[in-house]
Amino acid sequence: MKTSRRALLAAPAALLATPALAQGAWPNRPVRIFVGFPAGGTTDILARIAGQILQEELGQPFVIENRPGAGSNIAAQAVLRSPADGYTLLLGSPGTNAINPHLYSNSGYDPRTDFLPISQIAEVPNLIAAHPGLGVRDAASLIALAKQRRLSYGETSIGGSTHLGAELFRVMGEFEATHVSYRGSSPMMTDLLPGRIDFGCDNLPSILPHIRSGALVPIGVTSTSRWAGAREIAAIGETLPGYEVTAWFGIVAPKGTPAEVIRRANAALRTGLTRPETVARLQELGATPLPGTPEEYQARNVAQYDRMGDLIRRAGIRAE
């Protein structure tokens, strides 16, 4: 009888070690990934690539939910208001990770403490290009001309990485210029291609076709080194050492999310981002895959938070 009683009392504990527990492990239902921009843009595309990887690796749907507005603050705040159970995640962008708290009087969060990094997904460089009529061919000649006469320049989102990329180029190049802000790539190209503005900064996938057609002159990519898909285009850092403003993206979760969720999601993304077909797809977009640890992602976010804050203060940038 004693043996039977011990066996009976031990049964619940034994059940906890059976597959019944695995059935309740994360995720056991669909997961939402919030995106702070409309469908079709770089951020949305990368979120869908990440969602597909997670779905394939973890066996549950990962649904993209677009919540555009306020430089992605609306999406970030919605995620923070959700339960920290791993079923509501955020596609982190330069705005949410480093820029917005410096740009807005009240972004509603601190990215260094209110979110837990899961994994980086990819880095996308921007590219500065000039109208051929200027007669410049690279960063050095554009800077020299800008010091002789006042030029005009455009970017595709106030406070975004294209804006900061253009501003850092101006600040480090030590020249003044007339700034024109646009709501996207297409409106800026309407003025840049016919020469109504002198140069502009856009993300690489959007502007590269105009470079290859000869309609615009490449001044340089904004990453620390040349982009693998167009080695003929110099990096601006070759002329201005220390220059770098890229758009980096990853998945984050609200603080309090269980460590096991972070671990499983990170492992899934690291596996998927190294697949040859995923690497090829990202490279077609002008993106570089960035599989890595949560600690690596957080280190980059914190470093860029300080760097972007300094640049925003120096350039006097404000959200409109």
Describe the structure.
Strand 1, helix 3 and strand 2 form a beta-alpha-beta unit. Helix 3 packs across helix 10 and helix 5 packs parallel to helix 12. This protein has two domains: 164 residues, Bordetella uptake gene, domain 1 (D-Maltodextrin-Binding Protein, domain 2, 3-Layer(aba) Sandwich), CATH 3.40.190; 114 residues, D-Maltodextrin-Binding Protein, domain 2 (3-Layer(aba) Sandwich). The protein is 44% helix and 19% strand. The protein contains twelve helices and ten strands. Strands 1, 2, 3, 4, 5, 6, 7, 8, 9 and 10 form a ten-stranded mixed β-sheet that branches. The chain is α/β, with parallel strands linked by helices and 320 residues long. It is globular.
Computed Rg: 23 Å
Spatial gap, N to C terminus: 78 Å
Characterize the quaternary organization of these chains. Answer: single chain
Tally of distinct domains: 2
The average pLDDT value, as a whole number, equals 88
Instruction: Report the biggest beta sheet as strand number plus sense, adding barrel if it closes.
Output: 10 strands, mixed
> Rough shape?
globular
Helix content: 40-55%
Looking at the overall shape, the CATH architecture of the largest domain is: 3-Layer(aba) Sandwich
Task: Write the element-wise H/E pattern from the N-terminal end onward.
Answer: HHEHEHEHEHEHEHEHEEHHEH
Q: What do we call the CATH homologous superfamily of the largest domain?
A: Bordetella uptake gene, domain 1
**Count the strands?**
10
Q: What is the overall number of helices?
A: 12
Protein name: Tripartite tricarboxylate transporter substrate binding protein
Pfam families: TctC (PF03401)
Family: Belongs to the UPF0065 (bug) family.
Keywords: Signal
